[in-house]
Structures are given as structure tokens and as C-alpha cells.
Amino acid sequence: MKQFITFVKKEFYHVFRDRKSLMMLFGMPIVQILLFGFALTNEIKNAKIVICDYSNDVTTQQIINKLEASKSFEVQRVVSDHFQIEKSFKSGDIKLVIVFPENFNRDLLHLNKAQVQIIADASDPNAANTLTGYATNVIRSYQQELSSNYSAPMQIIPEVRMLYNPQLKGATNFVPGVMALVLMLVCVLMTSVSIVREKERGTMEVLLVSPINPVLVIIAKAIPYLLLSVINLAVIILMSVTLLDMPVNGNIVLLFVESILFIITALALGLLISNSVESQQSAMLISMMGMLVPTMLFTGFMFPIENMPVALQLISNIIPAKWYYIIVKSIMIKGLGFASVWKETLILTVMAAVILVISFKKFKVRLE
Amino acid sequence: MELNKDNNKSLSNAGSQLSVEREVVIKTDKLTKRFGDFIATNQITFEVYSGEIFGFLGANGAGKTTAMKMLCGLSKPSSGNATIAGFDIYRQTEQIKRHIGYMSQKFSLYEDLTIVENIQFFGGIYGLSDQQLKTKSNELIETLGLQKEANKLVNSLPLGWKQKLAFSVAVLHEPRIVFLDEPTGGVDPITRRQFWDLIYQAADKGITIFVTTHYMDEAEYCNRISMMVDGEIKALDTPADLKQKYAVSSMDEVFYELARGAKRNE
Amino acid sequence: MKSVELNNIVKTYNKGEIKAVNNVSFSVNKGELFGLIGADGAGKTSIFRILTTLLLPDSGTASVDGCDVIKDYRTIRKKVGYMPGKFSLYQDLSVEENLNFFATVFDTTIAENYELIKDIYVQLEPFKTRRAGKLSGGMKQKLALCCALIHRPNVLFLDEPTTGVDVVSRKEFWEMLKTLKQQGITILVSTPYMDEATLCERIALIQSGSIMMIDTPGQIIKNYPDKLYAVKADNMSRLQNVLRSNEQIKSCYSFGDFHHITMDNVQLTVDNLLVSLQNEGLNDLEVKEIIPTIEDCFMNLMSS
């Protein structure tokens, strides 16, 4: 036991004396949260929009004036054919197109209701969401003005269409994603690099030629990173709650327990990598390419998995972060309990166990 | 400076091919490098002549590497002056680099390139023309007897061959001076001597050799040697005169006498 | 019982392409200071790694302190001390932290075996809070030696402990080894420096994975087959050229301020040689018969 404690102590010395890595360790989640935080700010000013007016009558003109008067919008052009719509979006800086169908005013006066189409570029889902909201508000207040002038109630029905990202995965989805990403990065990268560093510096040679049990070496290596990751997790949650108004609707203890399970899975992966590479560089490269990229692609917080080809959907199942992401979303946002995430928890546990067994088996007691 | 008083003697000792009127290719004057409070090299002053084999010895941490970096134009001195091949060490580092060659035990050739590719790469860096490159590399491969291995990767060569090849590449562009940092470390005794044969050949062509080594018998092969202790040059003379001065029979003992008093660590 | 024993050990890399150790057999007695002398790439490190259970041999058997290097690797790891060729301590830990760490790894304390390392450790004590990475070359060697000794091993393996270290530190290091030997520890040391060979009790000269000769340094020198002469002249490089072109000179190697030569004594006498050298215009000639060094023996074995 004393051997083990000394070992853990030594690992902590390494961690704290390597200022650069330590900065990265704690700086990265903070920067990520802040970055996504900016993406989440809900006030948008002077968004460029295009009006496609087939009707070109008094009412549409009045609505356009209202939109222009609002601080949120800046009407870029008024066009009158729908080919222009897609062109406008493709040009990139147009966030929203409002389409008035033909005979808008006539429908409104004669049928007491008219339709207006709001098309948003949802590749930035947060902005799209906010802007369609603003536009709907402007139209609704105009409708109220109208109604007070006329006896009959007038209805303008906005039809919202989201382009590029119809699911509108948004704000709240990012924080669980960032959590999965950061934990993955810290655990896989740091453990694999720290073990490979011992190989590179030749200290592993000395450790192997000692009576110490290799399993002990591994576990002792993992402990500091487990602890640091939990601290990291706490920082992320605290920041997202205070700065980004993220809810933690479920049980926070459950959230931490599930996170520790995910951390262990990631640590085991780091270990597996370190078994098969000889230099810190390749450890880093494999951790980045082999872990980070799949985590970003297949977790579902950036690209909806449902839209992927079946083959990729199947692959996504072997990415631990996918299951962790589901668990975190369920607990934090939906406020669900263990009963609803036991399946995902079981999958993660099995993954962790399998990877651990493989990496212990693969751990070399010799140099080759 | 009293250390240089025996220059003439060293010249006659160096062999008949050397004339008495000799051009100075390295000249330093109170060259100093400080790192904060630490003085790595302390006012070193010496001259090296054209075609000379100059041994640059010293204990670990005596300041050899720092001094060598300054002379190669890789590190700027804190004070003092020096000219290398007639170029100023502060202002003309680019010209200096063009007129020197460098080889160390640690880095010499690209292991994952073939012998021919290495020769062409390093020759190319120094601006040799295609025609020159072709004749030079054929010449070099022939002298080293590497015809069969010419298109093999460098990492498949034994260490001794690599070192010999690295040296030949370092003098490919016929530099005025070649700096060798422990070129024979770990090499077997026969190859080590073959390496020195190459050094002599280069010196005969008029290339000045500036070499560090841990093998004291190699110190004997130098025309003159300097001994650095604690950042200063404690002795500079021909091996024969140094042995006489300290009344010992080998360079090993000279080194021991001088370095024993060293106070400083790396 | 022999302390270390190797029988026909073979080790290849790259699926047999590179033969690192070629059928090597030798044994080391208890309490002996045994040297493995050879250049880089001769196979020294591979042999050390096989003996310290870090590598498996392709064939052959080996034992350390009575334990088989393959079967009983765990037992061996408790009994040996190992200092790899590359400085292999934690650069970011202090001298004291390193020592404490390795003491615990071997399930002991500094106090328990302080006697053994005392002489070395007192030299390190003034720097005990300094990070290992900031020590001088000589100091690093001493710390590494302390760490390898901390558990009082029965057999100590030192892989090129003096490579890249200056003459003064090298002398000190060998002094320390002599003291350790008196404590009854078997020491295997490898070195590329031929002049260190005479400091060992017995040595193995190794080249290209094969052992050329094993004996005491004195006996190896005695076995040198020819009379060896040292020759000197006013122009050494010309002297070498002249000697090399003389067919009666069997070998000629430069050696410090002399050239060492062997010659066909039936046809050539020292006097004849002097005359022929003078005829070549060489002056200040000196020829004397000398006792060979280990390096002479090594080169002789290499070229035969």
C-alpha cells in the first residue's frame, strides 16, 4: 500500500511540475465553455435578412417597414422570385428570409387570414431559433395593431422552416457535448502521454526491473487524472450553470457517478493506446485523431446521428462518448433518474471493463 | 597572451606541409556568454590557424558547447569579439554558416533518407550545382567504398559508417572550418582510427578542424589543444608541450590535472 | 553457483534480419567485477536487457543469481539493480524524491541500506532538493547508481555508466565500483572505453554480437600474438603512410603520439626498419617494444 501511495504522490509531482500541461488541462474546458457561451448569447442585433415579396402590397410594405424598424434586423434586399432565396443563403451572411405569398393583403382582408413563411439558416441553430422568434414577434404585434383597427380578427400565420439543421440541435446540447469532449481529451491524452513518456525517458525500463506489480503502476498513473477530471467536470458544470444558465434538473450525485464511469472508460482507452505506441508524439496523434474526432462526429452534439448513413450510425454505437452524452442529457436537461439511463450505464460499464481487461492483458512486462 | 607563446613551435610540430606564414581562421577576443548570473564562457581568447587540427577539450559543463555554439553563429555572445573565416560573429552569421561545416554525434544525417539523398540534400543546402553534386557524390561514395550501399537508407549502416559518411557530408562544400562535436563517441577502435584518417585528409586539403572528444588518445592527434575548465581556457598548447609542462606521460593525466580543480557543474 | 550465466544466447530483431547477440555464452562469479567491452551496436545492451528480464532471447538459456531469466523473472527483479545506458531517473523530481521513490518501489527505505550508498550519497546531499534534470553529468550518474543500489541488490547491471562523462568523473565512478565490490555485490558493467577494461577483474571483448575473447585483462594482454612496437617520427602522417605501404608491417594503428605496429619478425628487425624509415626521409625516429593495451588486443581480434 505504501508503494502505491508513493507512486500516486510521484504522479502528482509530475502533473504539478509540468505547468504547461496543467494550464492546458484547466484552461481548455474554460475556453470551450466560454466559446460555446458566446454562441449561446440570445440577443442578436442587425441580422441581415432578405424579403421575398410576391404580393407587394400595402400590408407587406408595412410589415417590411416594421421589420426594418426593429433593431434586430437589417433588410438587405427585397426580391420577388424564389430562386433568389437559396442564393441569398448560400452567400452566407443572410440569416433569414421572409416570404410573402401572392395576394397576401387580399387573403388577409377577405379570408381574415394569410400565411407568411419564415426560412432560417439553421446551421447556427441558436441564431436561427432566436431570429425566427424575433420575426414572429414583429409579425404578431403588427397583427394585433391590425385587429384593433378592424372589427374582424385578422390572422397572420407564420410558417417557420429551418434550413440545413431541421432538428435544431441547440444550446443545451452543447454543454453535455463539451463535457464528453473534455473528459475524453484529458483522460485519454494525458494518461497515454504520461505512460509513454516513461518509456521514452527510459524510466519504464527501471520500473520493469523492479519488484513492483505493473498493475500498480497503471492504476497509480490513472488516479491523478481521475481526480483532475472530476475537478474539471465540476468546473464545467459550475460555469455552465452560472454563465450559461444551464439547468441541472436531475440528481447531481448521479451525474458525477456516471461521469466517473465515463472517465474510467477514457482512462482505460488511454492505457490501451500507451501499450501500443513508443513515442509521446504518436500517443498524442492517436489520442487526437483516434479519440477526439470520433467523439465530435459520432456523439451527436454537432451532427445529428439520425441523418447519417446506417453504417456510420452503427459505428457511433462503439463510441463511449455517445452513451455518456445521452446519459448527461437525460440527467441534466430532462431531469431523469437512474431508471431511465440504466441501459446506457450498462453499455458504458461493459465497455470500460472490456477495455480495461484488454489493456491489462496487453501491458508488457518486458520491453517487447 | 602567455598561452599562445608557443605558436611557432606548434607549427613546426604540426608537420612539413604547413608553412610558417599562417592565416588565422578563428580569432576570439574575450568572448563571453552569460546566462543570468551564470558565466558559461568567461573571456576566452584564442586563435586557430588554417589547416590546423584544433582539439577543444574540457570537462562536462566547462562551457565547450556554449563556446562552440557561438563560434558557429548559433548563439550571440554577451560580450567580446570573434571572427570566423574572416566574418564577424555578431553581424555576419549567415556568411559564417556558409563557410563552416558541422557534425555532431547526436545529429548528423537523415536516417530515413538514402546515402545519395543525404549527400544531395546537404550539398543542395550549400548551393552546389547539379553538376558539382553529381561529381562530388560519386567521388565521396567511391572514397568511402559505399558503391553497393549508395541507395540504401542511412539507418541500415553501422554506426561507424554513418559517422564517416556524416563527416564527409559536412566537408562536402569545402568549408574553411569544420566543427566536430564528439564525432567518434561509441565507435569501435578501428573505425575510430579510420575516422581520423578522414580528418587528416581534410586537414591536408586546408580545411581547419575544430574537434571535441572524450578520448584522450585522440587529443594527441591534434596539432594543438585547448583545455576549458569552469568557462575559461586553462591551457592551450601542443600535446607534447602540455605533457612536458605538467611533467606527465599522457594527455589523460594532463586532463586530470587540469579538470580536477573544476568547481562547477553543468 | 555462478552469479550470472549465459548459454548460447541468440537475440535477433526485425524478424531475424538483425542479429544483435550471436550465440553468446559466459559466466560471472559471485562478487566479481565483470566488464563487457565493445563499441555501440556490439550487442552489450541487448545482453544486459536479456539478463535483467527486459527482453526474451530467441534461443539459449541464462540465469541470474540462480534464477532463470524467463521463468523466474519476478524473483530476479527483486534481486538485481539496473542502471540503463540512458539517464533514466525522473528529471522533474528532486534528488531526494527520486531516491525515496525508488526505495519505496523496492519496498525498502533509504535508512535501511544507507550504509551501502553512504559514500556516494554524501556527495549528492548538498543538492538533495535540486531537480535531477539540473544535475551535472557526473552527479546524475551518481544519483542513478544510488537508486540502483537502494535495495542492496545481489547483482548490479550497469549499462555504459561512463559514456559521455569526462575523465575526472569517470575515474571517480570506477573508484565507487571498487568500493561496492568489497561489499560482495556482483557487478556487470559495459563500456565502449577500452582504457576502462583494465579496471575490471575479467572482461569479455564483444564485437558485432559475438564475444571475441573472455579473460582477465592481464591474460588477454599476455595472449597478444605478436611483438608490439611503438614508432614515432617528426612527421606522423607520413610515417603512417610509409608504414602502411611496407608489406612486412602486419598492422599499423595510430595511438596517441605513437603508431603501434606489429611486423613480420622473420624478415624485418627493428634496426632494418629504422634504416628503411630513415631512407624515406623521416627524422627524430623512435622505435620501442611495448606491452599491448586492451585496445591493441581488441583491434587485433577484430581484424583477425
Write up this protein.
The complex is a heterotrimer of chains A (368), B (266) and C (304). Chain A has 368 residues and is α/β, with parallel strands linked by helices. Chain A has helices spanning 2-17, 19-40, 58-69, 83-91, 104-111, 125-149, 171-201, 203-208, 214-244, 252-276, 280-298, 310-316, 320-333, 338-362; strands at 47-53, 73-79, 96-100, 113-121, 155-163. Chain A has a five-stranded mixed β-sheet, sandwiched between helices. In chain A, strand 4, helix 6 (125-149) and strand 5 form a beta-alpha-beta unit. The longest helix of chain A has 31 residues, at 171-201. Chain B has 266 residues and is α/β, with parallel strands linked by helices. Chain B has a domain at 2-14 and 21-109 and 176-259: Rossmann fold (3-Layer(aba) Sandwich), CATH 3.40.50.300. A six-stranded mixed β-sheet of chain B has the order 6-7-8-3-9-10, sandwiched between helices. The longest helix of chain B has 16 residues, at 189-204. Chain B is globular, with a radius of gyration of 18 Å. Chain C has ten helices and 14 strands. Chain C is of the alpha/beta class. The longest helix of chain C has 16 residues, at 167-182. The model of chain C has no long low-confidence stretch (mean pLDDT 92). In chain C, strands 6-7-8-3-9-10 form a six-stranded mixed β-sheet, with helices on both faces. In chain C, strands 2-1-4-5 form a four-stranded antiparallel β-sheet, covered by helices on one side. Chain B binds chain C through residues 15-16, 58-61, 158-160, 182, 185-191, 193, 196, 200, 204, 214-217, 220-221, 239-240, 250-252, 255-256, 259-260, 262, 265-266, and chain C through 38-42, 135-139, 163-169, 171, 192-195, 207, 234-238, 253-257, 295, 298-299, 302-303.
